[in-house]
Structures are given as structure tokens and as C-alpha cells.
Amino acid sequence: MRDALILPCPIIPTRCTLASPPLSSLFFVPVSHTANNATTTTCTRGRVKQRNPLPLSCAFKCAPLLPFPTSSVISLSQTFLRNFSSEAEREETRERKRQRFSPLRFSLRRPPPFTVNSLRLGFSDSRCGMVDPYVIGWVLFSGLSLFALYSLVFKGNGGNDRREGSSEKEERRSENVTTAAGERGSERRGGDADVIIVGAGVAGAALAHTLGKDGRRVHVIERDLNEPDRIVGELLQPGGYLKLVELGLEDCVEQIDAQQVFGYALFKDGKHTRLSYPLEKFHADVAGRSFHNGRFIQRMREKAATIPNVQLEQGTVTSLLEDEGIIKGVQYKNKDGQELKAYAPLTIVCDGCFSNLRRSLCNPKVDVPSCFVGLILENCELPCANHGHVILGDPSPVLFYRISSTEIRCLVDVPGQKVPSISNGEMAKYLKTVVAPQIPPELCDAFIAAVDKGNIRTMPNRSMPADPLPTPGALLMGDAFNMRHPLTGGGMTVALSDIVVLRNLLKPLRDLNDAPTLCKYLESFYTLRKPVASTINTLAGALYKVFCASPDQARKEMRQACFDYLSLGGLFSQGPVSLLSGLNPRPLSLVLHFFAVAIFGVGRLLYPFPSPKRIWIGARLISSASGIIFPIIKAEGVRQMFFPATVPAYYRTPPAEDK
Fold first, then answer.
1. Residue 163 burial by CB count (10 A; 0-12/13-18/19+): exposed, middle or buried?
2. CATH number assigned to the domain with residue range 367-462, chosen from the 4 options 1.20.1250.20, 3.40.50.2300, 3.30.830.10, 3.30.9.100
3. What average pLDDT does the chain have?
4. Distance from C-alpha of 399 to C-alpha of 83, rounded to nearest angstrom
5. Across the strands, what pairs with 457?
6. Mean pLDDT throughout 439-444?
7. Least confident of 25-39, 371-385, 419-433, 569-583
8. DSSP string computed for 442-472
């Protein structure tokens, strides 16, 4: 064979023909076995013939007998080993591929010429493998399967949302809208309503009337349209009454035997002081109101129902309908148990303190510092007529206020989430032995009679700072969104104030279907409401902590200082009462008065002779005051509370009305 080097091994090579091309350019492949089981390697520049591999040590065994110089033999051996080792590794790789893919019908024979139905795959040598149509089909099928798997795993949620959105659109196109009467009617394009309101309590009913009066189509879904019976939400501050007048709902406190409230009477250790609302600049009708909560709510529901474009329906909302991050409506069960869906560009959730929908619209951080135990006293008079009464008892305050011409509500605050059992008599014993001795004598007999009557009810006192998650198409309001301790009776004032802010924001907007734009304006609502709401929230939380008894000497001094500060009258009482009543809810005024009480307490301690012990207690009093108010302010948001004008959303106002 021309240009070939034959190296029989282990036989000493007897013939060697060196070709002009360098040995490094040759391919070494074993060709056959000799008679004595030796392996022969042939060097060619042509086609590779694959046989059994040659032992890698043959070149070194032959080197001493070759008629070449030693350097040539070493060079030849190194080249031989390098090329042969590389070829042996390639041969092993090809053998593994044959064994692995033999079921896939690879053709190792020379295939027919390339056609559309075949695919040429290059190998390391001059031969090439071919893949038949079955292999092509398998490869394509594998690719499609991987793509389908990827879609299911990584895009399944989005696909489900799109399918849900498309199904909802089809459902909205069909004539399957359920009216309040349970009849089928044709749904108007764009939804059956402009606004869906979940809940018809104080916030929901007032909002339905307000938006309906502005020409919005409002669909209200309330779990129970019967008159509620609650022990809270019975005292409306003068600031809340002014908001009621602004909304045109002042007549809702008429014909329900509501009682006017002109201030508070504060009792501590046998002493008392009277704190009157600063109402001199207002109309004679402006005052606080106390009433049965259920009667007040029913009056607002009745007034909202008189507006033709307001629809009240009894049902339980189970979930919000979301499509691509936008709330499109609600899914609910009507009073017959039928599953229905309602759609609107804006859904407002006002389903109260036990809301099951708030988690998707805010970060709820609910705290339950105490519980109220409610009683109704009859056939008695309050020491100070037309005033709410606060008894600074031990361990916590007791409230009295009139809710009708014949009934007085008593709320006993019990710290902690666990209260004495009513069923086994522990609660009655607690009220008689711990609370009754601290009550003014004028009310003590009626209090014990109410306990003996047995109509004792409890209600957890919840507080939750507003921490919204702005969501296109949805909004939280009322106790579902923001709660504070009910000691100051500020909840309804905050809710009605929020409704006024929202009404003013939405009034110029003719079309609510632009969800992203609407969401920006709703962010403005969260900012614009902050100063009033945060002031009332902070005052409620701080006053409750100050009014609760404590074994700590600094806290005792703070409590006494607060009572004495308010007893000074004039500016010292009018300022805090203006904050409490919602007539002047300014955050800076709140902070100034709160620390004025603390400094007043330090002055009391140091007068007339400051001692190291008194100085130490005074320092702890300031520290205690800071520890009370600053965490509440931080939770409410320092920037939004004190500097709302620095928040960009503060300047987002709706476009002007078309003239």
C-alpha cells in the first residue's frame, strides 16, 4: 500500500515506508490480527478502516530495534501515541453512541443522498450518519412536548387567568345577570353597575347614597339586610355629624330616638371634671349623637334605597374577580344560595372588622388589645346629662353614654383577648367585685341590676393601621381598611370623612372603566385621608394606653397628669377635646398636647423640691410618653401624616369636568 507505515506488534517491524507528508497528518487505525494474535496498524491518508484497537505500548517496544536515530524514533512514537490515543477515544465515543441510540434506528451504513426526508449528521471521520423520518418525527415531538411542559409549569397561572378572563367576558356578553329580585335580565355593555359596594354598614350605606346621588349606578351586596344589633358604633362625634351634614344624611339621626352629646365627664378616684365640645362657632344642631347602631344603619339603608340607580341585594360575597391584575367584580351567593357574579369598573369593600376580602387589598396587621363587655342600664340618670362618661378604673376604663331616652350603654374594657366566661358566672362575678365598686354611686345600683339581668355581650376591640396595596379596580373603606380602639368613638367619623374625600375625587370622573388611571386617583385617596384619619387613630391608641392602670410609677404619673391637665380648662381642655371630637384633627396639635401633658407631669413631680428619685421618674415619664405615641405614629406613616404634600399622589387630581 502506497504511503503506508506497517508496524506489526509485538513482532519487530521488518518494513517501513515513510511518506512525504508528516506523520502527524496521518490517521492510525488497526486493520487486522496477525496469525500470532498481534495487531497491525496501518497509516493511511484515505478512508479509515476500523478494527480492534492496538496496544498503546507497541511503539515503545519497537523503538530500540528500528534502524532510525533515537530522536526520530522518539518523535515517531510520540506522534503515533498522540494520534492513536485520540482515535481510540473517538472510537469508544462512537461505540457508546451506537449502543445508546440503536433503538432510534440510526443508519451506520452509507445512506442515500440527502433528501427532504433525511438529515445528514457529521462524525469525526469522513463517514456520516443519517437519520430517517422516524427520528425527525421523534425530535419534533420531543421539542413540542418540552414546549407544552414549559407552558404548563411556568405559564399555567397566566393561562388560567386569560382563560378565566375570556370566560368572564363571554359570560358578561350573555344575558345572565341576576337582579336583586332574582330575575334574569340583559346586562348592559361594560357591566351592570359603575360601582359595587360590599357591605351596607355605616360606611357602605353612606357611600351608596353618596355615589348614587352623584349619578353612579351602584350595586350594594350585604350579608344581612335585617337591622343589626351591636354594642359598638353607637356614638357619633360632632366632627362626624358635620360630615353627615355634608353628605346630606343628617336626617338619618332623626326618628331613631338619638341623644345629643355635648362633651365628656371624666372620673378618677372620686373626682370628676367636665369637658365640653367647642361648639360655639357652629349651628345649634351641631353636636355629638348617640343612638342604637342598628337603627342608624337601617335609616341610611332606607335612604340609599330611595335613589333609583342604587340596588341593594342580600348576599354573601365569597371572592373578588380578578383578570390580569385588575379587579373586575365579585362572586357571591344570594339569599337563595345561588352562586352569581357581578361586574363593575370599581369595587369598594366595606364588609367590616371581620372582613374576609381585605387580605388581597392591604397588609392587615390586626391587634386586639382588649375586649368590651356591654350592658344596658335602665331607669337611671347620668351624673352629667348629655355627656359621655369615662371612669378611669383599674385595670382599664369604663364608658357610659345614653343611646335612647330610657337606656344607657355601659362598656367595660377588659384588657387582653381572653375575658371571663359568661356561661359559668365568672363574668358576672368580675363585674360585681372588680368594676362595680369603682362606678359612681348614681349608676351603681342600675349597673348591678343589669348584671343580674344577664344580658351581657362581648366584642373584641381591634386596631389596624391602614396599609393598602393599591389594586386597579378595587378599594377598601371603613373598618375593613382601618380600625382604632373604640374608646374615643372615632370610627364613624373616620369612615364618613373618607367618603367625603372619595366623593370629591370621583365626582369629576365621568368614566370609571380606565382602570390604571382610576388606580392613580385612588392612590390619592389613600394620601388625602391620612391627616384626619391618622390623628383620630393616634389619639385613640395613645389615650387608651394612658388611661389604663399600670404598676409602673411613671405610667401612674402620666395618667394623673392627663387628668389634671384636662381639668385645667380653657386651652388645655379645648385643644384635646377638639381633637377627640374630630372638629380640629391636626396631627401637629395632637403631638404638642400629648407632650405638653408629659411635661406638665414632670413639673408636678419636681415641684416644689426636685429630688434624684423624682428626676428619675420624670425622665422615665418622658420616655414612657415617647414609647406610647411614636410607635403609633410610625405605624400610621410619618410622612403621610405630617407631610402629605411631599407625597406625589397628593397632587394627582381628576381631570376637570367637560363644560
1. exposed
2. 3.30.9.100
3. 79
4. 100
5. 374
6. 94
7. 25-39
8. HHHHHHHHHHHHT--EEEEEEEB---B---T
Residue 341 C-beta-side C-alpha neighbours within 13 Å: 21
Q: How far is residue 532's CA from residue 632's CA, in Å, rounded to a whole number?
A: 15
Which run of H or E residues covers position 323? strand 310-323
pLDDT in tens, 176-200: 233 333 333 333 334 579 999 999 9
Residues 559 and 390: beta-carbon distance below 8 Å: no
Which CATH architecture group holds 192-256+291-365+464-528? 3-Layer(bba) Sandwich (3.50)
Determine the pLDDT at residue 131.
45
Q: Spell 524-542 as b/e; 16+ CB within 10 A means b.
A: bbbbbbbbbbbbbbbbbbb
Q: Which is more confidently placed, 168 or 234?
A: 234
Q: For the chain, which residues make up each domain, given as ranges?
A: 6-104, 119-154, 192-256+291-365+464-528, 367-462, 547-642
Report residue 325's pLDDT band, with 50, 70 and 90 as the boundaries. Answer: confident
| C-alpha–C-alpha distance, residues 183 and 170, integer Å | 20
Cell 502527524: give the residue: 24
Neighbours of 482 (CB within 10 A): 25
pLDDT winner (highest mean) among 28-37, 104-113, 200-209? 200-209
One fold for both 192-256+291-365+464-528 and 367-462? Answer: no
Beta bridge partners of 321: 329
Residue found by looking up cell 329580585 in the block: 181
Residue 554: pLDDT above 90?
yes
Question: Cell for 553?
Answer: 410609677
Q: Is 523 exposed, middle or buried (0-12, 13-18, 19+ CB in 10 A)?
A: middle
Q: How far is CA 301 from the centre of its chain?
A: 30
Backbone angles phi, psi at 477, to 5 degrees: -150, 165
On the question of pLDDT at 75 being above 60, the answer is no
Q: pLDDT by residue (tens digit) across 592-625?
A: 999 999 999 999 999 888 999 999 999 999 999 9
pLDDT tier at 379 (50, 70, 90 boundaries)?
Answer: confident
pTM of the model as a whole: 0.70
In the three-class reduction of DSSP (H, G, I as helix; E, B as strand; rest coil), residue 619 is classed as: helix
C-alpha–C-alpha distance, residues 516 and 347, integer Å: 14
Angle of CA points 385, 387, 388, to nearest 5°: 130
Give dist(CA 139, CA 137) in Å, integer.
Answer: 5
